[in-house]
Amino acid sequence: MVEFKIDHESEQDEAGAKRSIKAEISAVAFEAQARLVAKAKPGSEVKLEGFLGAKSKRSKRIVLHVTNIEFMEQGA
Hints:
The protein has one helix and four strands, in the order ββαββ. It is mainly β. The radius of gyration is 14 Å and the shape is globular.
């Protein structure tokens, strides 16, 4: 298991206007995905898939449970 943080930046439509989104998201990965995250260089651009869930049975803090990681090529 690997716990890590994601810096997210995007532009979204909200109420007919563009909104700039910047957020830091807590994430966790297991098994093969954890090994990929552990090898990643800080600042790597990635596309993640997963689900939102509680960090643990005793914590209500939401984290992204990563089920798939795709590393983006530089300049792509």
